[in-house]
Amino acid sequence: MTDPILIVGAGQAGLKAAETLRQKGYDGDLVLFGDEAFLPYQRPPLSKAYLKGEMDEERLFLRPDAYFETASVELRTRTSVAAVDPAARSIGLSDGTRLAYSALLLATGTRARRIPLEGAGLDGVFSLRTMADVAAIRDALAVAENVVILGGGYIGMEFAAVAAGLAKSVTVIEARRRVMERSVAPEISTYFQTLHRAHGVTLRLEQKVERLTGETSVTGVALCDGTQVPADLVLMAVGAVPVTELAQSAGLAVGNGITVDAHARTSAPEIYAAGDCTEFPSARYGRSIRLESVQNAIDQAKVAAGSMLGETQAYDPVPWFWSDQYDAKLQIAGLSSGYDRTELEGDYDAGRFALKYFLGDRLLAVDTVNAPRDHMLARKALARTHPDGAQTPENGDREAAA
Fold first, then answer.
1. Helix intervals (H) in 199-318
2. Of residues 366, 349, 362, the one with CA closest to residue 391
3. What is the CATH architecture of 125-238?
4. Please, are residues 99 and 106 in contact by the beta-carbon 8 Å criterion?
5. List of residues 6+ apart from 350 with CB closer than 8 A
6. By the 8 A CB rule, do 87 and 186 touch?
7. Residue 221's beta-bridge partner residues?
8. CATH architecture of 327-401
9. Predicted TM-score (pTM) of this structure
10. Residue 243 near residue 80 (C-beta atoms within 8 A)
11. What CA–CA distance (Å, rounded) separates 102 from 28?
């Protein structure tokens, strides 16, 4: 009997790989491991609709429980994989059990970044990554008055919008000059800073935190300039790091994520990786990249599943992302790093516009606010253009529809 295909990580990438294997006709044993107690679920709504109570648990799940029996996918929740042995083609579970595999997919995702900050272990200090995190945050948010968010990235600003909507006193502390600075141009940052301030959010930019104060529960945030910000709930929203420990301990190549080729293959035979945890080569951008997005999790998982079955499709996507803050939907197509100019189209003051990023005459990326049609057109345009400017309509149509 052929050994099963094992998938470590029951998130968006892991589940999509399992689904794709079945859709492509794989009828062997298939086991999906997740260390959480829940069915595979969407993560983006955690800081948006699910946190606000606008989405219930059933809608958060990617598939109902019945799917796994129908598709003959063995889902093992509350199960931690402790080791991978590439030479023996086996994994070891935390309870000591060893299982052989014919192929293995690592879809281990990311974890919330923690910073060595005095007071980080106090009650009332949270990260937002899992359903369990949201449950704890909801309880604290119900009674909190002063909410402080460390980090002005997407998660931090989305959480600020939710807390402000609950009439909390909200302060965002960001070490950089503007919010979302790493990923958007000043025009986008300015728009969202104005929007948040209009909803009563205090933004403390170019500020560093010295420590969190309190005895058992957090009571405040001490800044390096001597300012004391009252807080009874602190969200640490300082980014995420790829979960690579299994790959590293198994001797796989790891850079800014688990290193894979364009076919989602790692440095070890019959071990693949997909999703937020991977770093992969992009001919489109001329470098290795790591993406944290639903698009990447889904599309790279499809490629990984195909590779397990002998297909040779290369993965080189046009990335896209989104963020919901109040009634503003920010959608991003492409990667803007290296741009030298921008062009604004639409009505900036009315909150319906597109911002295009260029390097010379080459379009790199497009950010849109409340302009979904412009976003879709941008994805198509970017997909049709290779780095050298050549037009590839076949690839463009396929990728834009993905």
1. 245-249, 294-308
2. 362
3. 3-Layer(bba) Sandwich (3.50)
4. no
5. none
6. no
7. 212, 229
8. 2-Layer Sandwich (3.30)
9. 0.92
10. no
11. 10
